[in-house]
Write a structure and sequence with these properties.
3 domains; de novo design (two linked rop proteins); Rossmann fold; globular; Ubiquitin-like (UB roll); alpha/beta; binds iron/sulfur cluster
């Protein structure tokens, strides 16, 4: 039994390694899907994307189109969340193994794995070659790896939110572990409501910027300790969760929560700590610029909205603005919230407005004094 479910430092380098640790690919050993799905219902695994869908619901709804495509989203959209590269390097056979089983359950022939062009594609290609040599599944399942330079579509939020079968990499890996371990073993991790574990990407003003794995039910007190942060002088003024898709929160309110789908929408698992002396105007600017970078620019509120936000916020940061610019900034964010066509963009815009409201005093200070309250970061 592994101490950790998803995250272990031992990389499975080839199919022999994988078989030694996990056994044969799941689709060769599991033919009866109903029993597995019944156990999955109890395991209560949810997708780690913006929709937070029940994996049981996805897999138990019959698909009648064999030519459908299952998209494995390893494209790492989320800001300051760095899991996908780790999963690909750490256990590529489990990704493939789990994806094939999911495709079989859904009666889908095509699997597209979407990655960033700077990821190590060779690892995944070698994995597919090794697995095909071993199991000869190439006539039943087509598996392709794409990046932003060679996919038939632009890989963006708009595209991904409109596909029927898209799964994030963590969900695929977690399902693979669950199917190999069985419900009883898997249930030793987590709590009554949520079985298993969750990977957290720590970033920001803490000592231990890295990936950590926690069981569901772990208190955030414990999670914060793992980040290396030690409480003193209220020097962390807020924490962003879900990779800037939730409103910012304080350490105090986070401390009363535990890792569960009910307490907090942990989503992609990004947790970013912001120190007291960081300028929140510049943090908001970073989020706006990130949102701009993922916008597909198809619709006006999102396309022009983030440009407008950047324009007004720049004026405020440069000390060249007045109250009207602040109101215009808020109006631009509200326009995005009301008019965005994608849930992901809606959530980022909500995060931006909540951040501005929470730190309004820093904005007012900049408007009054023509200089931001925190201009320099003391290292
Ligand atoms: S909200 Fe509109 S412009 Fe923004 S990503 Fe979605 S479709 Fe594209």
């Amino acid at each position: 039994m592994k101490k950790f479910v998803l995250y272990n430092n031992y990389a499975t380098k080839n199919i022999k390694d994988f078989k030694d640790n996990f056994g044969d690919y799941l689709y060769t050993t599991i033919n009866e899907y109903d029993a597995l799905l019944n156990e999955l219902k109890i395991a209560n695994i949810f997708t780690k994307d913006v929709y937070r869908k029940s994996l049981y619901n996805i897999l138990s709804n019959k698909n009648n189109n064999y030519n459908q495509t299952l998209i494995i989203n390893a494209y790492s959209f989320d800001y300051l969340v760095f899991k996908d590269k780790f999963f690909i390097n750490n256990n590529p056979h489990l990704i493939l193994d789990s994806a094939i089983l999911i495709a079989k359950i859904l009666n889908i022939k095509n699997i597209d794995i979407l990655i960033r062009s700077y990821y190590n594609k060779e690892i995944l290609i070698n994995t597919i070659v090794e697995a095909e040599d071993c199991y000869k599944f190439e006539n039943e399942i087509n598996i392709n790896i794409y990046d932003e330079n060679n996919y038939k579509e632009n890989i963006n939020i708009y595209f991904l939110e409109r596909q029927k079968y898209v799964l994030d990499l963590e969900t695929v890996i977690q399902f693979g572990y669950f199917a190999h371990m069985g419900l009883d073993n898997f249930s030793q991790y987590g709590n009554d409501e949520n079985k298993g574990t969750c990977l957290i990407s720590f970033s920001g003003d803490i000592p231990n910027v890295d990936l950590y794995e926690f069981q569901f039910g772990t208190s955030f007190n414990e999670i914060i300790k793992a980040s290396g942060y030690i409480y003193y002088n209220n020097d962390i003024k807020c924490v962003f969760t879900n990779g800037f898709l939730n409103a910012p929160t304080t350490l105090e309110s986070l401390n009363n929560k535990s890792l569960s789908y009910e307490d907090i929408n942990i989503g992609n698992g990004g947790v970013c700590f912001i120190a007291e002396n960081r300028c929140m105007l510049r943090i908001v600017m970073k989020i706006i610029q990130f949102a701009k970078s993922v916008s597909c620019t198809k619709c006006m509120p999102c396309n022009y909205g983030f440009n407008l936000c950047e324009y007004y916020l720049n004026k405020i940061i440069l000390g060249q603005s007045n109250n009207n610019d602040y109101k215009n900034l808020l109006n631009a964010v509200e326009m995005i919230i009301k008019g965005s066509s994608c849930l992901y963009i809606y959530n980022i815009a909500k995060c931006i407005i909540e951040t501005i409201k929470m730190f309004e005093y820093e904005f007012i200070y900049a408007l009054d004094k023509k200089i931001t309250l925190y201009s320099f970061i003391n290292k």
